[in-house]
Design goal:
This protein is α+β, with helices and mostly antiparallel strands. It is built from eleven helices and ten strands.
């Protein structure tokens, strides 16, 4: 009886073997050709077509997997999920800045008697980077831990070879010059403050409550010191707070200062308030740095330059807005009685809407 069961079990396993083999090839190979040009990075990626379908999550039946035309049709129909998959599993950083790829062409080619998806990916960049980092995580977790990708990188007229494996998934070529680091992160800080409308409205609300130049200097100094502390702590991963909590708290800081401007317009904002809320805003500033790939050699220069960019932007806002508010309060008091509360009410509404959106 036991012998019969054993024979049946062996027979079933033999019958299942072909389907198991077609499901996963194991030890699959991939090939990468990465060319860094002046305004873009061209990535020619070749992957086992069936294994790619398992990783991305679309179906390729056994018959189609052996017919190039049918396989290309199915693969091309899944261009969008393939592009999304590649952008989350191949992370490209040009001078520490993340760049996103676009799949421009999909073909099928035969390599060693196997059908491979031949993918052309284009990454737009502003200029040729001095440093390129590629983090490759294709197939390792989803379908084939034994996957290996043989990469060839052409950059600055030089060619380098590299093999991505489960154990080694990151390629780092070149080094940014100190000037490039400082300039890049300073500009990033400027852009961040000028596109961070919540931070701008908070600073303007502080200015509305300021009475003298000396007062505004104390507020700005307190805010700067505070957000510099938490920006450093968060970037160095010493203290981490949930992003949802930070963004909601920033919105509440705007609501609080706006309410104070509306209901107690004659009272001055205390520097400790600017300091307390500055601590929260610092975690918000750190959010963008956490998205970048900053090695230890880049960290100090990036942190200082980014913070200086924020301070320069903040100083420019104060220089432009405070004289206008001061002029209104001293020379056009009748108009200012309506203008200042109106601005504060608008700021309050923005802060309240942001809080609802971020907290719930």
């Amino acid at each position: 009886m036991r012998c019969t069961r054993l024979l049946v079990w062996i027979f079933l396993m033999l019958m299942a073997a072909p389907s198991l083999a077609s499901a996963h090839t194991n030890n699959s190979e991939g090939f990468s050709l990465i060319e860094v040009k002046n305004t873009r990075i061209d990535y020619q990626l070749q992957l086992d077509a069936v294994e790619l379908s398992h990783a991305v999550g679309f179906q390729v039946d056994e018959q189609a997997s052996a017919v190039p035309d049918k396989l290309q049709t199915i693969t091309s129909e899944n261009k969008v999920p393939i592009e999304e998959y590649l952008n989350t599993h191949i992370l490209m950083y040009a001078d520490s800045m993340p760049v996103e790829g676009t799949v421009t062409a999909i073909g099928i080619t035969t390599i060693n008697e196997k059908l491979f998806a031949d993918l052309s990916i284009s990454y737009d960049i502003k200029k040729a980077p001095e440093n390129l980092i590629v983090k490759y995580n294709v197939m390792f977790e989803e379908s084939d831990p034994s996957h290996a990708n043989m990469a060839k990188v052409i950059m600055d007229g030089k060619q380098q070879e590299f093999v991505f494996t489960y154990e080694v998934r990151e390629l780092n070529i070149g080094e940014m010059s100190p000037f490039t680091k400082i300039k890049q992160f300073f500009v990033l800080g400027l852009k961040h403050i000028f596109t961070g409308y919540d931070h701008i409205l908070f600073v303007i609300s502080l200015l509305i409550g300021a009475k003298t130049v000396r007062h505004i200097l104390s507020l700005v100094t307190a805010f700067t010191v505070a957000h510099s502390i938490t920006l450093a702590l968060a970037t160095l991963e010493i203290v981490q707070l949930p992003g949802k909590f930070v963004e909601s708290a920033i919105a509440l800081s705007i609501v609080y200062v706006a309410l104070k401007n509306i209901f107690t317009p004659e009272s001055k904002h205390a520097p400790w308030i600017a300091f307390a809320f500055g601590l929260i805003h610092g975690f918000g500033f750190a959010g963008i740095l956490s998205e970048l790939h900053l090695g230890k050699s880049h960290l100090a220069a990036a942190l200082v330059s980014f913070n200086l960019g924020i301070e320069a932007g903040q100083l420019l806002i104060v220089t432009l807005v405070f004289p206008i508010l001061l002029y209104l309060s001293k020379n056009l008091m009748r108009i200012n009685k309506w203008v200042t509360p109106s601005i504060s009410t608008a700021v309050l509404l923005f802060g309240f809407v942001w809080f609802i959106e971020r907290a719930f």
